[in-house]
Amino acid sequence: MNKLKTTSSMLLSVSRVLLVVFVTILILVIPQLNFSEYVLPTITSKMIYFLYGCMIICGIYTLKIVFSKEIKFSISKIDIALFVLVFYITLNRYFIQSQYGFSIRYVELLGLSFFYVVLRTIAIKNYSWLLLSVVVSGVIQAVYGNLQLLGYYDSNHSLFKMTGSFFNPGPYAGFLVCVWTIALGMYLFKDDIIMQVQSHKKNNSLFLNDLVKFVFEYIPLLGVISMAIVFPSLQSRASWIAATVSSLVLLELKYHFFKIVFKIVTSRFQKMAVISILIIIFIIGLFSLYHYKKASSDGRVFIWKVTTEMIADNPVFGVGFDRFKTYYMNYQANYFAKNGETTESLVADNVYYAFNEGVQFVSENGLIGLVLLFFVLYILFQTKSNKEDQAISIIAKTALLTIGIFGCLSYPMQILPIKIILIMALALLACLDLNVFELKLSQNNMPLSLYKTMFLLFNIILTINQSIYINTLDKGFKTWQAAALPFESYETVLKDYKTAYPIFKNEGDFLMSYGKTLSLAGKNTQAITILEEAKQYLNTTVIQTALGDAYKGAKQYKKAETAYQKAYNMCPSKFYPMYLLVKLYDETDNKKQVLIMANNILNKGVKIPSTAIKEIREEINQILIKYKNPLD
After folding, report:
1. Which residues 6+ apart lie within 8 Å of 107 measured at CB?
2. Is the separation of the CB atoms in 66 and 448 below 8 Å?
3. Distance CA 250, CA 206 (A)
4. Separation between Cα atoms, residue 614 and residue 531, nearest integer Å
5. Rounded to whole angstroms, how far apart are CA atoms 541 and 332?
6. Cβ pair 78, 119 in contact under 8 A
7. Which residues contact 277 (CB under 8 A, 6 or more apart)?
């Protein structure tokens, strides 16, 4: 009996260690993944392997529960607030909204929710190591980015030399600025963290103490230096602002600069002067950053302006989680159809994100979602922790602040590695919360064995079902990628699309690619069906022009004109939809519209000169010659 207890106790200890180790590995590895056999590899490969990792962690977590002598649930106000928010998002997505599609973001949300539950069971003493793994992960990315800049590795975007393992410098900068905050916080509060880690060690040898001190002092310092080297090359204003604010907050909390200044400055006039100088510096800084990439800034402002119309039409519940991209381009097209080709058209393009997480969240989840989100934020920053845990509490809260500031100008909630950091910070604060509700099941309670058995069976069934689903997604993304690669015949490609269709029949990007390929292959009737389905989940100029081509090929000229016109209204600065309209009017002998649209093309200002625009104008001149209306 004693031997059985000893074995059970040993297995419990091993499962606890393994849980921390695998969570650490997951945090370290996921940002690095980018496997080219997957479509959208910087996104999908991270998600697939994160889900596989969660399955492994689920197995270890199950063993931990089975071998525990007692099961303790610790529920904080943060847990309850987050549960209510996720429950509302799910309810709104599946039951309140009239339609929903396949969503990588929602699949990630489910995985992250499980990850949060597991993180809540990890002891506070282990979080310093988890934070350290984030820093190491960031250092690897910083080195990788510099090697891309030097030409040793290719970037993931044709227009940028440095993207890390992300699809462009924006999310790469967002991840690194989160790491910057954690690294700087760990370095500034290294004495507190080192003391905490050393106090929890069973072996109190001098060598281990020195090793812990070295690791927790120099790895965060290496992280700070690595990020500082990379930031200027990324040219991400959102990351610069987030890094500046988070750094000032951490430095103030450590050294109390402003407190010291206002002790020295005693008179009211002096205090007002100091505040005025700070406000002027802040305004000048924002003004400079705005003009640093003015077109980009104007583009974001325009997106927010159009999104307000979407919010006004759906104020209570929004349009549904991850449905912004379904509706936005329709609103942008309506805006230009109503107001004409304004100067704003020069900064308009196909849009998937609102470039402001708050604006996008409200547009998707409505005012009810916003109230619940504010409730979560209120609970978070009201959380109190023990004095000895104050340092990691500050780091977690500042990391959340960093993500929030970066999210005001970008899209961190689309990036899995950033969301992993977010979830870790939330779980850490929940673990630190002093006001929690606890429920214990011990060996003396009869339901414990029954609970363990039920929990084991539930997790076995869940793991089997989820492994089948993840494997299906894995194969589906690879098949989709195979279809998107250069090909010899349409038949081979369409066979791949047909194979992947049952998996992604509600995925806008997939249907767009599938429909466009059908149109190019001359299968117009099928193309129309697929592209009309695509519009239910995504709408872009690519879908509209492909739909126009399919309708034109099917001799449905009025519908073709409507599609081309919609594409033009979406992005009036683009020449291609106008060119397609000219070709359509030429084919249908509509001389009047040919002349009007052709002259519009030839007189149109060029946003970015290109060979394609030059060739379009040359062909338009040839068409005008045919209509005896050459333009000099």
Report:
1. 47, 51, 473
2. no
3. 31
4. 29
5. 11
6. no
7. none
Give CA–CA dist 333/565, Å, rounded.
Answer: 9
| DSSP summary character for residue 604 | P
504-526: pLDDT as tens digits: 999 999 999 999 999 999 999 99
Q: What is the DSSP track for 258-286? A: HHHHHHH--SHHHHHHHHHHHHHHHHHHH
Q: Report the alpha-carbon distance of residue 176 to residue 179 in Å, rounded.
A: 5
Q: Which two tokens stand for residue 127?
A: 């979080």
Compute the distance between CA of residue 25 and CA of residue 465 in angstroms, rounded to an integer: 24
Which of these, 347, 335, 349, 363, lies nearest to 540 by C-alpha position? Answer: 349
CA distance 163 to 167: 6
> What phi, psi does 99 have (nearest 5°)?
-155, 150
Range scoring the smallest mean pLDDT among 88-92, 136-140, 233-237: 233-237
The alpha helices in 68-168, defined as continuous H runs, are 77-91, 104-120, 127-149
Can you give the three-state secondary structure of 37-85, one letter per residue?
Answer: CCCCHHHHHHHHHHHHHHHHHHHHHHHHHHHCCEEEEEEEHHHHHHHHH
Backbone angles phi, psi at 516, to 5 degrees: -65, -40
Closest to 351 measured CA to CA, from 323, 369, 329, 366 = 329
The string of pLDDT tens digits covering residues 349-396 is 999 999 999 999 999 999 999 999 999 999 998 888 888 889 999 999
- C-alpha distances (whole Å) from 278 to each of 275, 283, 527 are 5, 9, 59
- Long-range (24+ apart) CB contacts under 8 A made by 290-295 are 292/237, 293/235, 293/237, 295/346, 295/347
Buried b (16+ CB within 10 A) or exposed e, 614-632: eebbeebbebbeeeeeeee
440: tokens are: 């214990």
Between 541-553 and 576-587, two packed helices, what is the crossing angle to 10 degrees?
Answer: 10
Give the residue ranges of DSSP H helices in 163-293.
169-188, 190-199, 206-234, 237-255, 257-264, 268-292
Which residue type does 247 have?
Answer: S
Confidence of residue 276 (pLDDT cuts 50, 70, 90): confident
Q: How far apart are CA 563 and CA 568, in angstroms?
A: 9
User: Around Cβ 122, how many Cβ atoms within 10 Å?
Assistant: 20
- 474: which residues sit within 8 A by CB, 6+ positions away? 48
- Which of 503, 504, 560 is CA-nearest to residue 527? 560
Q: Which pairing describes strands 436-442 and 70-76: parallel, antiparallel, or unpaired? A: antiparallel
What is the model's pLDDT at position 203?
67
> CA angle, corner 416, sides to 413 and 420, nearest 5?
95
AA identity, residue 202: K
Identify residue 343 by its one-letter amino acid code: T
The whole-angstrom distance between residue 18's C-alpha and the CA centroid of its chain comes to: 28
